[in-house]
Amino acid sequence: MNYLVMEVHPAYAVVLDEEGRFLKAANLRYQVGDTVQHIVELHRPRKKRPALWMPLSGLAGLAACLCLVFFGYYQPNFTPYGALRIQINPDVELTLSRTDRVLELEGLNDDGQVLIEGYDYDNKDRKDVTEELVERAIDLGYLSGGETVSITVTSSDTDWQAREEQEAREDLEERYGETIVIQIGASSTEPPATEVVIPVTPPATKPAPEPTPEPVPEPTPEPAVPSADQDDTDYGPGSDGTTSYQDTDYGPEADGITDYESPDDGAYSDGVTDYEDRDDEQDADDSDDDDLEDDVPDDDDDSWDDDGNDQDQDEDD
């Protein structure tokens, strides 16, 4: 394609192509009216769309700045890092930052509250506040020549604590070393705490109530069994309800043994009469015996059994 040079500039040239377009090309020592076949076309840079991460990067940068401000300036200057206690007779405590900035001032006793009353410690460091408080104590009559000022520093950082105690002591000795004594640590001249003994009367002990005995039920008496040896009759109102009869020889209560005594006469007679003899009947007995002797058969050959029967007669029959 042929190009016609229309304008010439130090850095570029304007050419016209065969399609009627004006293009910018690098000026390779062209002259107006030259016709060239090859050019180095110059293109305008395209506008880039803003990336989505641009707002986030801005927020991240802001957060980094805030962290830098907090950790680099605010935290060392406005965050409590330790405390310094000054004991004269007034007892006061200073809350310090890591850079020795006084953040808070507190009176620990009545004289300490009087000492700091009306005192402004804003934007002051530890050196200025300690020296000014010692000066106020002298002016108010709490401190005079030869007396002791005790300084105690507390912190979780032991190195910072030791450094602060040493610097505070040197600063005060430099200004008041000829009149007062500066001591590191708690004052040993504090009056001992008054021990108050409150008598406590022990409460009167009440006697323990005796346990109430539980009612014991009375035993029910068993029905009395009437004795078989009583003289009560077996019938009638005086009967004890128990018959005293001996066992019968018959029936379900029989013991199988008959207790009857042998009769004096009859089939079961033992041949012995148990009647007692009487004098008035002696004669009658004698006559009866004679009659009996007459009735006895004379036949010596007859035999008689125990019942008086003739055994021979029985055999004949």
Distance between the termini: 197 Å
Mean pLDDT: 73
Report on the biggest sheet.
5 strands, mixed
- Which segments are poorly predicted (pLDDT under 50) over 5 or more consecutive residues? 280-284, 289-301, 313-317
Strands of the largest sheet, in order across it? 7-6-5-8-9
Strand content: 15-25%
Q: Measured on Cα atoms, how large is the radius of gyration?
A: 76 Å
Order of helical and strand elements: EEEEHEEEHHEHEHH
Number of helices: 6
> From the helix content, strand content and strand pairing, which structural class follows?
alpha+beta
- Roughly how much helix do the residues carry, as a percent range? 25-40%
Overall 3D geometry? Answer: flat
How many E-type strands? 9
Query: Regarding quaternary structure, how should these chains be classified?
Result: single chain
Descriptive notes:
- The protein has 317 residues and is α+β, with helices and mostly antiparallel strands.
- Among the domains are: 3-36, no CATH class; 78-184.
- The protein has helices spanning 53-78, 110-116, 126-139, 158-176, 282-295, 311-316; strands at residues 3-8, 12-16, 22-26, 35-36, 80-87, 91-97, 102-107, 148-154, 181-184.
- The protein is flat and about 165 Å long.
- The model is unreliable at 280-284, 289-301 and 313-317 (pLDDT under 50).
- Residues 200-224 have a biased composition (Pro residues).
- This is Anti-sigma factor RsgI-like middle domain-containing protein.
- Residues 250-264, 273-317 have a biased composition (Acidic residues).
